[in-house]
UniProtKB/TrEMBL annotation:
<dbReference type="Pfam" id="PF01590">
    <property type="entry name" value="GAF"/>
</dbReference>
<keyword id="KW-0805">Transcription regulation</keyword>
<protein>
    <submittedName>
        <fullName>Transcriptional regulator</fullName>
    </submittedName>
</protein>
<dbReference type="GO" id="GO:0003677">
    <property type="term" value="F:DNA binding"/>
</dbReference>
<feature type="compositionally biased region" description="Basic and acidic residues">
    <location>
        <begin position="1"/>
        <end position="15"/>
    </location>
</feature>
<dbReference type="GO" id="GO:0006355">
    <property type="term" value="P:regulation of DNA-templated transcription"/>
</dbReference>
<keyword id="KW-0804">Transcription</keyword>
<feature type="region of interest" description="Disordered">
    <location>
        <begin position="1"/>
        <end position="27"/>
    </location>
</feature>
<dbReference type="InterPro" id="IPR036388">
    <property type="entry name" value="WH-like_DNA-bd_sf"/>
</dbReference>
<keyword id="KW-0238">DNA-binding</keyword>
<dbReference type="GO" id="GO:0000160">
    <property type="term" value="P:phosphorelay signal transduction system"/>
</dbReference>
<feature type="domain" description="OmpR/PhoB-type">
    <location>
        <begin position="233"/>
        <end position="299"/>
    </location>
</feature>
<dbReference type="InterPro" id="IPR001867">
    <property type="entry name" value="OmpR/PhoB-type_DNA-bd"/>
</dbReference>
<dbReference type="InterPro" id="IPR029016">
    <property type="entry name" value="GAF-like_dom_sf"/>
</dbReference>
<dbReference type="InterPro" id="IPR003018">
    <property type="entry name" value="GAF"/>
</dbReference>
């Protein structure tokens, strides 16, 4: 983050953009311009307010069950004096941008209520526009947002800095820590401070939870094109093709033949077994011959895969827990037939369970996610159950989606005629 931005120039740029223009650079930073575009695509109203989704009873139960509850004593210890002395707020949100704790200076708390910056409100970027906690979990990186860089005008009197917090063993995004206040926060030190708090929270979680067994493989492949594998204390980021191989083998612990593996990995029937063997040889060199075996091809360790965890929780009826683990589609950029089938099956099962359950909070978690923002099935289900106070933006989004689908169908008809 550089020097404090020119607020008047940013407001002019924001007004021009929300009137149909493009954000000029400068004064708009590239990160902010891209966030504005995502906010507009998600049909966030520049003059709207965040929706409060959890009442006190539901919020208390949600907090108690969330992994970040264990880190709150450390977060408070590090931030209480900073927030009180500086008249700031400290907020902690989940991976969906829902605020779970908002604490700090009493005057700042009162002012924040006017824009629904309160515990239980959803501040994910696709619901509330550009803001530090919502954008931090959207991008999974530390973010500072100053004054008129916020997409919504009621928030432009504030400055905020947020950093994501991850599970120290699996790397899964748990949420973010945020500092929100006035212009005094428009300084690089604010972002550095909140990053240090996030790292301290992760260290505390690591102390409280033991690492997985050394003889097991931990595989993270949801919401990422390059899978992350943890093995014997090593953290390995796999290439796209190696990610597909490991995902397919994780689903087939009994092993598969080379011929079958070819059909699961390649759309192109002309790919030869020599090509596959070369890929497997490189992967074996990365993992070790004692991990990747042949005849048949298999992983000689127990694999704890995030997509299997989702399926198990869903199968036991723990839909909320399944969504908590689901970080996005499985290897979303993969066209490998075996991966595509697994990806579509898992997403379809989750969607069906969500619609069947009809829980407005869970439906909103999916609808406001990067993979659910264009899902009309879930938006229609949400429109049926959302409380009246939050129905207008949902209906607006649904009408826009229906218009896009109708326009797309019309274009297809014209091409076919």
């Amino acid at each position: 983050m550089g020097p404090e931005p020119d607020t008047r120039a940013l407001r002019r740029a924001h007004d021009a953009f929300t009137s149909g223009g493009e954000p000029p650079r400068p004064p708009v930073r590239a990160l902010v311009a891209e966030s504005w575009r995502r906010s507009a695509r998600a049909r966030v109203s520049p003059d709207g307010a965040a929706c409060v989704e959890l009442d006190e009873q539901d919020l208390a139960a949600y907090r108690e069950a969330h992994p970040l509850a264990a880190a709150m004593p450390v977060i408070r210890e590090l931030t209480d004096a900073y927030a009180t002395d500086g008249e700031h707020l400290v907020a902690v949100c989940d991976a969906s941008g829902r605020l779970m704790w908002v604490e700090g200076h009493s005057g700042a708390l009162r002012r924040a209520r006017s824009m629904n910056f309160v515990a239980g409100a959803r501040w994910t970027e696709s619901a509330a526009g550009t803001n530090a906690p919502g954008t931090a979990v959207s991008l999974d990186r530390p973010v500072q947002v100053c004054s008129a860089e916020h997409f919504r005008r009621p928030v432009q009197a504030w400055t905020c800095a947020a950093a994501p917090v991850h599970d120290p063993h699996s790397g899964r995004l748990l949420g973010a820590v945020d500092i929100t206040g006035g212009d005094r926060l428009a300084h690089p030190h604010s972002l550095a401070f909140v990053q240090a708090v996030a790292r301290a929270a992760e260290s505390q979680l690591a102390l409280l939870a033991p690492p997985p067994a050394a003889d097991r493989i931990r595989l993270e492949a949801l919401g990422r094109n390059e899978a992350l594998l943890r093995l014997e204390g090593r953290r390995v980021r796999l290439s796209r093709r190696h990610s597909e191989i490991v995902v397919v083998l994780a689903r087939r612990p009994e092993g598969v033949s080379g011929e079958e593996l070819l059909t699961l990995l390649y759309e192109d029937a002309s790919v030869t077994p020599v090509t596959l063997r070369a890929e497997l040889s490189r992967l074996r060199g990365l993992l070790g011959a004692d991990v990747l075996r042949s005849r048949p091809y298999r992983l000689a360790r127990t694999v704890d895969a995030d997509f299997d965890s989702v399926a198990r929780k869903l199968g036991s009826g723990a839909l909320s827990a399944a969504l908590g683990v689901y970080a996005g589609p499985l290897l979303p950029g993969s066209c490998a037939p075996g991966v595509v089938r697994l990806r579509e099956r898992l997403a379809g099962q989750l969607r069906a369970a969500l619609v069947d359950r009809g829980d407005p909070r869970l439906l909103a978690d999916w609808a406001y996610s990067a993979w659910g923002e264009d899902d009309p099935v879930v938006w229609r289900a949400l429109a049926r159950v959302v409380p009246a106070s939050g129905r207008a933006p949902v209906l607006d989004r649904l009408r826009a989606l229906d218009a896009e689908l109708s326009a797309g169908a019309t274009r297809l008809q014209r091409r076919g005629s």
